[in-house]
Amino acid sequence: MTSLGSKPRRIPGLLLLAAGVLAAAAIAAGVGSSDLTLHDVVIALAGGGDASTRGIVIDFRLARVLLAACVGAALAAAGASYQAVLRNPLADPFILGVSGGAALGAVLFIAAAPSAGLTDSIARPAAAFFGAVVTLILLFALARVQGRTETTALLLTGVVLNALDSAVIQFFVSAGDPARFQGTLSFLMGAMNAPSWRTLATVFVLVAFGLAVLFAHAHTLNLLTLGDEEAAQLGVGVDRARWTIVLAASLVTAAAVAFTGIIGFVGLIVPHAMRGIFGPDHRVLLPASALGGAATLMLADAAARTLMAPTELPVGVVTALVGGPFFLTLLMRRLRAS
């Protein structure tokens, strides 16, 4: 039994984390090119102030902050789930190539869609989900050596698939209609733009559904971390449970990537941090990762808007600058331990 089994520690910790999410949202909503004070933001959110200020705060800043929260929660929860299913602490939607596959699916949809207006519909995340699932199937098939899925092979295969996906995306961008693929470069680096409320609703519904499936399988994730044989002896249908969890994690990843592009390392850093605070029980780790991911990406997006103002960095650049060294540190520790 780990220290995480203590309910008194869980509940105040999650409440404190939820308060941190609200604080991060307030900070992110107060950051922007317009010279607005925190008082102006609060008044606008309450429905007061002039129409232009309300438009900036609600339709631009608030929509963007909520999108960052949804995407951060999705990527962090997906990362925690992949790490449990694969029993690999280095697993992450970006590192495994799932984000790249989802991005390729979304770009292929843009190339084939008869109208740019369709890019706000459910079809775009559906195409991203298809790309993510195809990538996962290839990943498991290529990384399987003598009947076992090797950790090193899994990571290397994910890197190669990411590179191939990026190459195919670049081909379509170069050979296709420039107007149709405008902004794809920033999409590859993780572009956090203010979405329409229709787009935000689509992302929210897909992420909420996927997270509900993952949360419902939290106890199963605990058992899967013990090993396939042990989980089966405890009554888990291992193959069915694994694919249900993997598909739900891929769904939330695809919903995130379809509208924001490839944002790396959130699914790696946040679950590790939350595991260090709350322990390995996924009944607590999954909601903690979702909350932590939401706060992390909102703050990363705020940093992307301010570090080189008035120039805005892609948020994926900010997460990569922090996550890249973190990944290398974990990898070196794992190699030394083995």
Walk me through the structure.
With 338 residues, this protein is mainly alpha-helical. The protein has one domain: ABC transporter involved in vitamin B12 uptake, BtuC (Orthogonal Bundle), CATH 1.10.3470. The chain is built from 14 helices and 2 strands, in the order H-H-H-H-H-E-E-H-H-H-H-H-H-H-H-H. The chain has a two-stranded antiparallel ribbon with strand order 1-2. Strand 1 and strand 2 form a beta hairpin. Helix 3 packs parallel to helix 8 and helix 8 packs antiparallel against helix 11. The N terminus is likely disordered.
Shape: globular
> How large is the radius of gyration?
20 Å
Number of spatially distinct domains:
1
What is the strand content?
Answer: under 5%
What would CATH call the architecture?
Orthogonal Bundle
Uncertain parts = 1-5
Which CATH class is shown?
Answer: Mainly Alpha
Q: For this structure, what is the CATH homologous superfamily?
A: ABC transporter involved in vitamin B12 uptake, BtuC
**N- to C-terminal separation?**
25 Å
Find the structural class using helix and strand composition: mainly alpha
- Secondary structure: helix percent: over 70%
Number of strand elements: 2
Main sheet characteristics: 2 strands, antiparallel
User: Taking strands numbered 1, 2, ... along the chain, how are they ordered across the largest sheet?
Assistant: 1-2
Q: Helix count, per DSSP?
A: 14
The CATH topology turns out to be ABC transporter involved in vitamin B12 uptake, BtuC
Helix and strand run: HHHHHEEHHHHHHHHH
